[in-house]
Automatic annotation (TrEMBL):
InterPro entries assigned: ARM-like, ARM-type_fold, DNA-bd_dom_put_sf, MerR-type_HTH_dom, MerR_fam, PBS_lyase_HEAT
This protein's name: HEAT repeat domain-containing protein
Source species taxonomy: Bacteria, Bacillati, Actinomycetota, Actinomycetes, Kitasatosporales
Record-linked SUPFAM superfamilies: ARM repeat (SSF48371), Putative DNA-binding domain (SSF46955)
Organism: Streptomyces zaomyceticus
Keywords carried by this UniProt record: DNA-binding
The keyword Glycoprotein belongs to this UniProt entry's keyword annotation: no
Domain annotation HTH merR-type: ranges: 1-69
PROSITE patterns on file: HTH_MERR_1 (PS00552), HTH_MERR_2 (PS50937)
Pfam families found in the cross-reference section: HEAT_2 (PF13646), MerR_1 (PF13411)
Length: 334
């Protein structure tokens, strides 16, 4: 079969067939009397094999190895192709995301587009300084899509840059809630912590709802971060977690301060005092934890706390009794 007919039947151009021949991938079995290339059925079969392998993403060099190297390992090549394909998909997905981010910013002209692209590139820079400057630029009139800031903060390992990004998000008015919710559900603990810290600094109602969800999270650190933020918003559901933090000496000073702030709301003071008293009376906490609970109770207004302190002033633990007695003198002072 001559080269023209092979090209028609295989869909491979005559020029490409000559290129394959120059690379040694396929050589015509014979020549006609006039010197034209003549392909046998086996040659044509090899051409189809070449095209099949190329369709998998193999280079022509890899195709040659696959067909001619007796030591060739197909499984290793397939694994490599899978890896390369995943990398290509990831790159294309990143490009698609970037294009969507640019579109969401509604640029007025190419200068805006270029400016947004520059900021997005800076947010992905290896330099922490550049990333931080980009975060700060986003609140100085630069139009950076909120979703891009969320993605940046969820992946930011530098605490200073992360702080700048959280501040920028809070100043932006919120958004990116779906991405932040995904961050809370991440299999990586550091991403979950970044997500809840970011949400905690955002004043929106949507942020409060996400913090409520975080309060029931399986990750203890997520719960401990969400509870003080909810207390600052007046959400009394945070009380049990805050009391646990005092008992477990896990950022207990922060937890006690959050309880005190929440207790300034009349509806919450008795609930907080009751929760602290219950833990003191339970008998399941050690001496050090009882002292911390007493100190926390000392800052809670209301009759429930006062009555509890009177009882604690006669406690067997001298440190607890002295703390309670001292606080009572301050409460009785004019």
């Amino acid at each position: 079969m001559l080269i023209g007919e092979v090209a028609r039947r295989s869909g491979v151009s005559a020029r490409m067939l000559r290129h394959y021949e120059s690379l040694g991938l396929v050589r015509p079995t014979g020549r006609t009397d006039a010197g034209y290339r003549e392909y046998s059925d086996e040659d044509i079969r090899r051409i189809f094999h070449i095209e099949s392998l190329r369709s998998l993403g193999l280079s022509l060099r890899e195709v040659g190895s696959a067909l001619d190297d007796p030591g060739f390992t197909p499984s290793r090549l397939v694994d490599d192709l899978v890896r390369r394909t995943r990398e290509r998909i990831a790159a294309e997905t990143a490009l698609l995301t970037r294009l969507r981010r640019i579109g969401a910013a509604e640029p007025a002209g190419w200068q805006d587009v270029l400016h947004i692209v520059a900021l997005l590139q800076a947010l992905g820079s290896e330099s922490a300084g550049k990333r931080q400057r980009a975060a700060l630029s986003s609140v100085e009139g630069a139009s950076v899509p909120v979703e891009a800031l969320v993605e940046a903060v969820l992946g930011e390992p530098d605490p200073n840059v992360a702080g700048a990004l959280r501040w920028a998000l809070a100043q932006s008015g919120g958004g990116g809630w779906e991405l932040l919710a995904e961050g809370l559900g991440s299999p990586m603990a550091e991403v979950r912590e970044r997500a809840v810290r970011t949400i905690a600094e955002m004043p929106n109602d949507e942020a409060t709802e996400l913090l409520r969800e975080a309060l029931g999270h399986s990750d203890l650190e997520v719960r401990r971060c969400a509870a003080p933020a909810l207390a600052a918003r007046g959400v009394a559901d945070a009380v049990p977690t805050l009391v646990d933090m005092v008992v477990e000496e896990a950022r207990d000073a922060e937890a006690a301060d959050a309880l005190t702030a929440l207790a300034s709301r009349p509806a919450s003071a008795d609930r907080i005092a009751t929760a602290l008293v219950d833990r003191l009376a339970g008998g399941a906490v050690g001496p050090a934890a009882r002292r911390r609970l007493t100190q926390a109770l000392a800052e809670i207004p209301g009759s429930t706390a006062s009555h509890a302190l009177v009882e604690l002033s006669h406690d067997e633990d001298r440190a607890v009794a002295l703390t309670a007695a001292y606080v009572l003198t301050l409460r009785d002072a004019p």
